[in-house]
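Figure 2 data, in text form.
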Amino acid sequence: MTRRFPPALAACAAALLGTGCSHTPQPAAAAPTVTVTQTITPTLPAASTPAASHTSAIPTPAASSAPAPAPARAPRGSVALTEWHDGDATNTCVNVMTVYENRSDTAVISITQKFRTSYTPRHADGEYPDDVDGPLKTLTQDAGIAPYGTRTLYWQVCAPELASRQNPVPADGTDSFMSEIGAQPRATTWDWAP
């Protein structure tokens, strides 16, 4: 069985008025007079509000945020030890001058240099033995080498344990070089600037 409501009642129900609505239909020729009163009370969830909704075909942009930082680019290139010289020396320490060339577009903040020490072992007067290798020594210092720049660094390489393995320096200074240690640069490593 299908029930039909008068158009005014249907419109009232569609509008969901909270106060209800009533309609008295006009009497028809052979129909009895009918009065219909209907109260419609909408029930909405607590979180819901009876507000009009709007749908747009244009997407709403998300809240703007700062762009993500680009990943750090790995430096390309290297640092080359281009020149070195032993300087003043004693039987425990030697001064070494080194020249480094930064062959990169990134600055270098520090250099770590390994040195192979050498010394002349104990011997009799008039003998001239070959130098022998001493311990490796690793030193680090701030470099501050600009991109594609060159820098001279000075190192003091010490190996006090070698003093007892050498002849003492002669009083007259003859052949005193045989009582001095030496140091040759070996492996070089560096730290790039951030």
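Caption note: Strands lie at 21-23, 36-38, 77-89, 93-104, 108-119, 132-145, 150-158, 182-192.
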